[in-house]
Amino acid sequence: MAADSTDRGIRQSPALSAARVDPRVHLNRAHAVVYSGAVLALLYHRAVSLLSSTSLLSFFLFLTITVAELVLAFMWALSQVFRWRPLSRKEFPERLPEVVDPKDWPGLDVFVCTADPHREPPMGLVNTVLSAMGFDYPAEKLSVYVSDDGGSQLTLLALVEAARFARHWLPFCRERRLVDRSPEAYFRNTDRDYSDGIKAMYERMKEKVEGVVERGRVIDEDLPEADREVFGRWTSSFTRHDHPSVIQVLLESRKDLDTTGAALPNLVYVSREKNRAFHHNFKAGALNALVRVSGIMSNGHVVLTLDCDMFSNDPQTAQRALCYLLDPAMVTKLAYVQFPQRFRGIDENDIYANEHKRFSHIHPTGMNGFRGPMYLGTGCFFSRRALHELPSPLCSSTDDDDGLADGGGSSSAFSEEAIKMAHEVASCRFDHATGWGSTMGFRYGSIVEDFNTGYELHCEGWESVFCHPQRAAFLGEMPININNVLNQLKRWCVGFLEVAFSKHSPVVYGIRKASLPMGMCYSMISLWGIWCFPIMVYSVLPQMALAHQIPLFPKALDPWFWLYAYLFSAAYGQELVDFLMAGGTIRRWWNDQRMWMLRGATSHLFGVIEFSLKQIGSPAPGFNLTSKVVDDQQSARYKRGVFDFGAESPFSVSLGTVSMVNLSCFVVGLARAIGQRDVERMTSQLLISGFVMANYWPVYEAMFLRRDSGKIPGKIITISALLAGALHGVGFLVLGA
Ligand SMILES: O=c1ccn([C@@H]2O[C@H](COP(=O)(O)OP(=O)(O)O[C@H]3O[C@H](CO)[C@@H](O)[C@H](O)[C@H]3O)[C@@H](O)[C@H]2O)c(=O)[nH]1
Ligand SMILES: [Mn+2]
Predict the structure, then answer these.
(1) pTM listed for this prediction
(2) How many domains does the chain have?
(3) Is 120 annotated as a binding residue?
(4) Does residue 46 fall inside a structural domain?
(5) Do residues 244 and 294 share a domain?
(6) Containing structural domain, residue 665
(7) Which residues does the annotation say bind UDP-alpha-D-glucose (predicted)?
(8) Which of 144, 169, 456, 713 shows the smallest number of beta carbons within 10 Å?
(9) Ligand 2 centre and the CA of 479: distance in Å?
(10) 450 among known catalytic residues
């Protein structure tokens, strides 16, 4: 393969990307300075009140609220990193073929993870796989590997069908130059009538796969003779937690041709070995098995990770990523190019803040081309090198292992020996007690393997780029009922805290190893859970004090009152500007703020509790899969912008309790203040309580005004009322005196 190595690699021609400084940078910095001054003034004011407090009770009340404000100030300071040096880049994928000959492009191995055919419908996986096979990329350099952590023959059957359909689908896309290469998306978006041809073929496949999934097992009649053998490996002792590795090559580029005689990409099914004696490390374990298996087979120098529901929405995406991965100025240190997680069918108001919660992890405005984004678990192109070694200058392009250009798949790639070896490296023993998960591959030790892996790579000196094109590169499914949304967030909170309190804590190790700004970003996210403290304090304490007419804030129109007013409105205002600049709407911004407050009382609070319990040895749920099954009633509600509480969940109890405390305190507090003819003294707390209630409006609606099945169940309302009553009892004992 070393043959023509002299003319491979990069010619010094047009730049593949260009940098740009955000014109708002000076404004941001000026704002940060003024705001810091205000924060310091606030802390001074709090310190004075603390020192001059007249009773133990008021001392403790002021102390609690001051600590809450310290946490807010700390998180605010960390978040300034993003705004201090807002550099962005733009890439030019159209120039790529001019700069690097497509025959010199690196091999691209796409990893698609799935784990349960009942929570992750196989047809979703099929669409993701077909969309990735449909990349505008030389077929012999493209391989798709599916990791099936559910070890399910239903998933394999779906892929057997997908492989057959791909022979028709890929030429169909190519000839018509389609942009939608997920068949589901294409047929949804087109008005053309293909009812007798390709569409009928797709519908037949879909019907068959869904039928088999419903039946729950594969029978011989489902399969042509040639495909039956591999299904024989599902013996009676085969369970999802205990089974040997199963690897099946479904398409091999060198042999399999589409209906027009052109080569197809490789398609490989992998279900790594499972054995109860070994921890399988969830998705990180699955990805590492794929790194090893693909390393033996096609060994593409670029690896794309995808979740089963994240289909490609633009066939040019790989080229876009190559604009960075092949840039001579970046290549030595660039570990990955991350695309944002965007969602199919997201409502324009995004009531659950599904989209923004991911953006804000990486950048408030989701700026294109900014350096140093976190790894988000999906839609991310890695340089394979980063998964094996430390960053180092590459040898010159005369070296065949230069990490850039690779044919992807030599003639022995799919030989019998190779496949035998692949089975071995997919075993638990191969993974156990080795460098995998600690110095190599995707990192173990946290259920947010993505965050943890990106972080460790950054600590090793690797860099990353965020790529956020106008047209979404990938689209996925998102949870559309509040319980699933909050469960997912809770999992993240727990995982982040696992990193925060690991021996590589960002607060110490990260700031030392990566850079100060990078360490600050990772600290902020890893401590995400502690938001629950200030949010809970602000959602309950001023209100309880209000009911008993104890002022905790300066009275209305006092000069200090204006300081609070400024801090509050500037914080919300800056978020609003970020939203509008990123193309959002006021409505979306409000929904995002609202979710932030609701999360404080739910996912963050429960995440912190769960993490703490785990520290003292109580069993924790681990990686709870987010369901991708679409419920029609739920999506109808979602489209109308109505919250779906439905399930009897502890999250709703928490929300119910806080909402009742606010309502009752507001009513009692207002009545008393009017009675005492001194509303001014309590104005701040009335405003806070009113603001919290405005945020909780969907909760009140779901408790008292709705009749549909998405309302909060009566049982939850009763429990909440009892808890709110108990809180008032405590409040009466402590504050009533
Ligand atoms: O033991 C497991 C558990 C999960 N998965 C796969 O991991 C992916 C993500 O799972 P999902 O339930 O969809 O999680 P989300 O909450 O949507 O995931 C976000 O957060 C995760 C970390 O918590 C990241 O891994 C994901 O990429 C990111 O989209 C799916 O493809 C699963 O099939 C496995 O392969 N093995
Ligand atoms: Mn997901």
Answers:
(1) 0.93
(2) 2
(3) yes
(4) no
(5) yes
(6) 62-75+514-735
(7) 120, 149
(8) 713
(9) 8
(10) yes
Residue that is last in its domain, among 459, 478, 497: 478
What's the distance, CA 677 to chain centroid?
51
Do 214 and 327 lie in one domain? The reply is yes
3 pLDDT more than 80: no
Q: How far is the CA of 310 from the centre of ligand 1 (A)?
A: 11
For the stretch 637-673, pLDDT in tens is: 999 999 999 889 999 999 999 999 999 999 999 999 9
Evaluate if residue 678 carries a pLDDT over 50: yes
Is residue 310 domain-shared with residue 161, that is, in the same domain? yes
pLDDT at residue 392 above 80? no
Residue 37 reports pLDDT greater than 90: yes
- CA–CA distance from 166 to each of 126, 128, 262, 264, 287 (Å)? 10, 12, 12, 8, 24
Q: Are residues 278 and 379 in the same domain?
A: yes
pLDDT in tens, 597-651: 999 999 999 999 999 999 998 887 888 898 888 888 888 999 999 999 988 999 9
**Residue 35 domain-assigned?**
no
Instruction: Please say whether the beta carbons of 335 and 457 come within 8 A.
Output: yes
Which pLDDT does position 404 carry in this prediction? Answer: 40
Please indicate, yes or no, whether residues 137 and 69 belong to a single structural domain of this protein.
no
- Say how many Å lie between the CA of residue 122 and the centre of ligand 1: 15
Q: Which of 104, 116, 148, 149 is the catalytic position?
A: 149
**pLDDT at residue 83 above 80?**
no
105 phi, psi to nearest 5 deg = -65, 150
Does 448 lie in the same domain as 573? no
How far apart are the CA of 257 and the centre of ligand 1, in A? 33
Residues with CB under 6 A from ligand 1: 113-115, 120, 147, 149, 282-283, 286, 307-308, 341, 377-378, 447-450, 488, 491-492, 495, 623, 625-626
Question: What residue owns the CA closest to ligand 1's atom 8?
Answer: 307
End-to-end CA distance of the chain: 85
Last residue of a domain, one of 478, 504, 532: 478
pLDDT higher than threshold 60 for residue 402: no
Distance, CA of 403 to chain centre:
28
- The answer as to whether 45 is a domain residue is no
Amino acid at 108: L
Per the CB < 8 A criterion, the answer to whether 216 and 154 are in contact is: yes
- Indicate the pLDDT class of residue 398, thresholds 50, 70 and 90: very low
Q: Are 460 and 590 contained in the same domain?
A: no
Q: Tell me, yes or no, if 193 is annotated catalytic.
A: no
Nearest CA to ligand 1 atom 10: 625
Rounded Cα gap, residues 64 and 49, in angstroms: 12
Identify the residue whose C-alpha is closest to ligand 1 atom 13: 626
The secondary structure of 115-152 as a DSSP string is --TTTS-HHHHHHHHHHHHTSSS-GGGEEEEEEETT--
